[in-house]
Specification:
Six copies of one chain form a homohexamer.
Chain A lengths: L1 E8 L11 H4 L6 E10 L8 H5 L5 E13 L5 H21 L5 E3 L2 E4 L2 E2 L1 E8 L2 E9 L22 H23 L6
Parallel strand pairs in A: 1-2
Antiparallel strand pairs in A: 2-3, 3-8, 4-5, 5-6, 7-8
Helix pairs in contact in A: 3-4
Amino acid sequence: MISKLLPNSIKYDGSQIAPLWAYSMGIKGDSIVVFHGPMDVTPENMKDLEDRKAGETIRGDDLVHIIVERFDSPSSMRLAYYMQRLLVVCIKDVLETHGIKTTRNGDDLFINDGKLTVSIASAGVSGEKIHCGINITTRGTPREVKTAALTDFGIKDWRTLALEIAETFVHEIEDIEGDIVKTKSL
Amino acid sequence: MISKLLPNSIKYDGSQIAPLWAYSMGIKGDSIVVFHGPMDVTPENMKDLEDRKAGETIRGDDLVHIIVERFDSPSSMRLAYYMQRLLVVCIKDVLETHGIKTTRNGDDLFINDGKLTVSIASAGVSGEKIHCGINITTRGTPREVKTAALTDFGIKDWRTLALEIAETFVHEIEDIEGDIVKTKSL
Amino acid sequence: MISKLLPNSIKYDGSQIAPLWAYSMGIKGDSIVVFHGPMDVTPENMKDLEDRKAGETIRGDDLVHIIVERFDSPSSMRLAYYMQRLLVVCIKDVLETHGIKTTRNGDDLFINDGKLTVSIASAGVSGEKIHCGINITTRGTPREVKTAALTDFGIKDWRTLALEIAETFVHEIEDIEGDIVKTKSL
Amino acid sequence: MISKLLPNSIKYDGSQIAPLWAYSMGIKGDSIVVFHGPMDVTPENMKDLEDRKAGETIRGDDLVHIIVERFDSPSSMRLAYYMQRLLVVCIKDVLETHGIKTTRNGDDLFINDGKLTVSIASAGVSGEKIHCGINITTRGTPREVKTAALTDFGIKDWRTLALEIAETFVHEIEDIEGDIVKTKSL
Amino acid sequence: MISKLLPNSIKYDGSQIAPLWAYSMGIKGDSIVVFHGPMDVTPENMKDLEDRKAGETIRGDDLVHIIVERFDSPSSMRLAYYMQRLLVVCIKDVLETHGIKTTRNGDDLFINDGKLTVSIASAGVSGEKIHCGINITTRGTPREVKTAALTDFGIKDWRTLALEIAETFVHEIEDIEGDIVKTKSL
Amino acid sequence: MISKLLPNSIKYDGSQIAPLWAYSMGIKGDSIVVFHGPMDVTPENMKDLEDRKAGETIRGDDLVHIIVERFDSPSSMRLAYYMQRLLVVCIKDVLETHGIKTTRNGDDLFINDGKLTVSIASAGVSGEKIHCGINITTRGTPREVKTAALTDFGIKDWRTLALEIAETFVHEIEDIEGDIVKTKSL
């Protein structure tokens, strides 16, 4: 699994959840790509129908964005969500090493009762994809939701954090793959 | 997913990892079954070939045993391991609510540098299975490994803990299933 | 599997075969949804290319509509059609308890030589879907086809019939699931 | 799908449910094989754990035996059972054309309240298999179960019946395959 | 697998890679369809993102076109590419019997250092598809690529060649299927 | 995919086709392992039932043995055989660079009309496996079959050849994987 940080700000509008988006960034293969930038997901790019029905806004002025793609034949929506949960666990673990204690509820992380992250997983014919956004700032986040953000808890450098998350996730996935190849089937 | 606690002590010898073991206990369907008892895995029941090659002993005088079965067509060794990692995360989270801080490395939990758990996942044609054992006592655990145990950290009642773990895991899985059925594919 | 009757008349135009349509009706999970209403399938919603090529009209002034959705990772077009055949068998069985003898040919039911039903099955990345329509009246059905309808055979109350069909199908599917979890693989 | 009648009596002891049994009979490919003979399933060949746990006897002096094999990559226990249900529906339909009215409950057929059939489905890595036995005589069937048999209802010639069932099932399966190849995915 | 030669010239614009295209040509089932005609793939029909990114032209005035479709539940992008490689090997083998020695590099065939073929494979929910085009003439092929063509090496009759390729491929696939049904699983 | 040459002579008795055999040789992950040694496949290790039924002997005094393992969830017997065909094509291509012209018929290579190779593919729950043996000498091969061997055609050094085959196959597989990750689904 390739790990890559894109240094420039990129707006996440939900189009990046499409298969092969990473390829358009020059990345070929299973990957975790991290960057930062604002978020404003257009309704047609909302994969979670609950959000779309509710007419929710998925917004923020600056977030760390994490995009995971795994090529799979056949692909599995279920595996996409299991993988997403592990990604969120990795984020939680890394934040803890930075002294930020979060609570996980499904695929959401909270600091106290402020929502720190948004996330979606899905699958297409060619494989699984995950997006997770971590608020760098609470500016621009929806008013109706109490949110939390990294800068309010002393994280100045999103790059270091993002790279640690990517590294932790890659290690997690490769550790699983390493277990698979030494296990007898039932 | 059915959650069931078997009150009597049962020796875990590795045969319980076989498909449909829960059915022989009267449990019909996807399940998480918890019980306690000694552990002594016979070499032919070792699914992790690393253990078998090393001639390892997988032993202990008393552990909480957690057996998960998920029926799946077709089944997936990979999903088995993703599910296992989430089970171990659930155990970690529940222990934390009991004031026991553990460190996770793949599918192992440690207290300080003492190994608290053993775990294996695998798949057969009919579905996925997971075993995780949590030391209640360090007695009977292999001498060559530094181990940790629940009783040394103040857990007197394995039942309460086991039920909380089972409940947390069932909630985690059902939360994932709830996400799947509201997600558009790519 | 959730069984739900929608009391109001809804026009079936083929858009209801899309994944997650039931979710837009407030139903979350595997489901069989029944309602009644006219039918006029637009060409772009025809999944059976034979119909589309032939420029066929798929129409009627009032039918019982049955929509089945099963979430599946990975999904299977084949399973969709096997499930559809069983749905049609369930309809046949329920009609027989109401004194209506039908003949089944694949996924079509006939009374004498009048076509009583239309049906399609298909699959997307997220799972399988089935539609089956049962003519309440022959009014509005294509002229070039001899059709039959429930009202001509004494069925006044589509609701009772529809609920019995849904219940029978749910029982059939759950009976199969119950067999799966007690069967050893080969 | 190859349809073949083996003229000689063969005892069904459950070993015929193993993958590639038909190959040992000279049949290469997906197949439905019919023959007649006694039945006495040994416990180790019982795939239904409910039967095995109950210490049931699965016996009879003479039955029509139907063995279906479908090669599949990957295979599916679920598909095996859906296919089995359709096989039982085909048997029911053929019996009806011979003036024998049966009631189906899952994978069992009854005449009045006498059990006419036994059946199991399962899957291995290479594909799906089904066995269904239809009592030609009630002799030798378990005493604790009320059974029914073909000869008591005027069927003298098991061959004609068996061939009609095989033909009906092959037609059903090929009809499904014919639908699959003209259906757009969702 | 159905093998069919369409005698008329058809322009390949990439739309023929869509599932069920063969059905619109009256072909029902797994198939290899061969025809000839010009090629000009529109960017939205380019499945290989490398080509699309590079703004490549995929063109020629006259090619033999081979379209393979395999219905599959679930389908597999990986199998699509394995099948494509075998198709290209079959083309190579047939050309060799006509005295034309080619070199294969992945899915490309070269005569000396002139590129003779273009090819793509992909999968949708309903199955796998492959296109392979063989230059009949180098006219109209992209200027920036050195190309080779059948007519320059003495092939006058594309029909004979195309039919031999189709026949060889069908034999290859059926030979594999014949092996599958006599092989014990592990 | 790991490529490894085992320098010592190892007798191939068919047990090496079992999943995770390479792991017992210290190889962890997808692999192609090459070694040389005699061959005498015991009937219980024959996966091709045609061989077993015929009471065939699968023997030789010295062969190059190639063992491929690919971990896969779910696994596919079909993919195993497609992969095997490509392995045999790679062997053919490498031999040709050494001036040895072979003819391929399915998974068999012939020099003139002498059979040079034996091969089998199969799948278990954990993945796919392939064995291919190439006669170094005709000594010890079955009398009833006309065989060919490398030494009769000037190959003195099996190691060089084996490594070239392994390298060619690894390149082929990785080339396919590289195509998968740049292809849009249908």
